[in-house]
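Notebook, p. 212. Picked up where the previous page left off. The plan for this session was modest: take the two constructs that came back from the sequencing core last week, fold each one, and keep the raw output in the notebook itself so nobody has to go hunting through shared drives later. Recording the first one now, exactly as returned: residue sequence, then the structure token string.
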Amino acid sequence: MAELTPGQQSFLEMADRAGVSHDLFGQYKPDIQFQEAQPDATKSTIAYIHTGGTLAMVPSNDGGTISFEGAVNLPKIIEVCNYIAQVRRRYNIIGIHLANIDSKEIKPDAWTAMAATIKTVYDLIDGATLGHGTHTLEYSAAASSYALRNLAVPIVFAASQIPSVGFPGSDGIPNLTGAMEIAANGDFAEVLAYANGTIHRGSRVTKENDSRLNIFESKVTGPMGYFGAAGIEVGDGARRRMGKRKHELIFQPEFNSSIPSLKINPSIGPDLLRELLSGTEKAVGAVLETYGSAALPNDL
């Protein structure tokens, strides 16, 4: 077993105090890589939890692609955020490195580790921001909203289409600093996703663009708010803060990976559907995406 860094050891001691089992972190080893030496009690305290994604990518050695080779590390991201938006002047930051991976590699064990990381620092913070890739952010945000229910503070996922450092016009640092401001001072008490000035509910957000900066949409509920020149605008449907400790957090961080989903289309007949659903011994259930509310063809 590899020796733990001081930051990893400090985090596990924090998890012990919070009653969080080390087993929940699985292969992940949360590492406190940044913490204010002298926190200011008059400021909000936020956790920045780093999981990777385009936010942390840099130009590769050949100059033509982006990669995690030599990727921007967590202290560097906080340094750039502070240079651009003076975030350390505005709030106390606890920087936790959870992973540095392409979000297409995210699996349910990562959702459990994310939820357990938030639970570990929950009593210390006024909000949290998670840097995440765009490919699976909607899944991680939804999973977190189910694993961490009855929240009293905002948990904000942030992503970007352009790497934070080394590319002109990057949306990485604006999205991340905006998410930090929402986590610290936004009147929300739920899991959110933020990009390009728009705040979405974590359990309703979907990725709509692979290249444009308005990455996400919330087609059913609409946005929960906006962040811009007028500050943080909170929508009518948002769940609001009611004092950080008036809610008792419901923590259920484990997920069942034996439930496949299947999108129904006109080419799927009863025989094929029966074969798809009966062809595995591991599935305990299935989710069928139909044409609309209860709109499943009669023969199915």
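Okay, moving on. Second construct, recorded in the same format:
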Amino acid sequence: MKLSKLAAGVFALWPLCAQASGDADTARRFGLIGVWALDCAQPATAYNPYETFAIARDGTIVQSLDSLSIEASDHLHGLSLAGDKLSVKWDSATSKTTLDIVLRKDNGKLQSWSSARPDGTVIVRDGKSVHTGNPMPLFGKCPKR
């Protein structure tokens, strides 16, 4: 029995669709979907960026950044949840960068807990910038705008 080209395509893409669906479910469970900012009462600026996490039509997770100086649209995949932490693979088409990131929720606030490049370079460790030693900012979830 021969498979039609459509059926063969569906079988070939099924793992990708299942992963996207799983990522969307994980993002929803974590509470990631929505708009986050340092101060939701203030407009987006370089010092108060708005980060929006959404589920695209194909089920993938997209992140957009609005800081009035930078606008970017990136993709998250490979999401896994462990308590108050969400591990993601982050791919930026804008900066051509891939990172392994762990986001942490602390009293409803979102913080970058760890971040590393594929070559092992660590950018964030235990919620602090490796470069400066400063804590990573805490983003609050904004009401719908």
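Notes on construct two before I forget. The beta strands are 34-37, 50-55, 61-66, 71-82, 85-92, 97-106, 109-116, 122-125, 128-129, 140-141.
Flagging for discussion at group meeting.
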